[in-house]
Amino acid sequence: MSPNQIFVRHLVLTFTAIAAITTLALWLGAASRRENARPSAVARPEERPRSLLELGAHLYESKGCVACHTIDGSPRVGPSFKSSWGREVTLGDGVTLIFDETYVRESLTYPQAKARPGYPPSMPSYDGLLTPREADALIAFMRSLASPR
Hints:
This protein is mostly helical. The protein contains four helices and two strands, in the order H-H-E-E-H-H. Strands 1-2 form a two-stranded antiparallel sheet. Helix 2 (52-62) crosses helix 4 (132-144). The termini are far apart.
């Protein structure tokens, strides 16, 4: 095995370990928030109703999307969300599809099902970690990043 192959293998293993740790931390955090949640007659300021777009921007930061996906067009561990909405993307197996609500929902639940080439398989599944409203909010946020045509 060449030094480059060894390096890539170690890099993929590192990203996979990071993804597993992130998933565990998100899962534990969600579980502790559910256990500590107490109904309150008065909503605190951080619980005020938000628009889907505001909530999506908040979730992009708080759920860790920002660690791997940018909104300025530069790649990180994962592809940028900037101008992705409505565009064709080519998957690792050569299939081309549209970056839309269906693609995003499937990627949140089964991130490796339609992985894109050039990015390590490190995205954790958010299955059970997002409410339907949160998924809708992330989709609204990604849609807002589409460039005007």
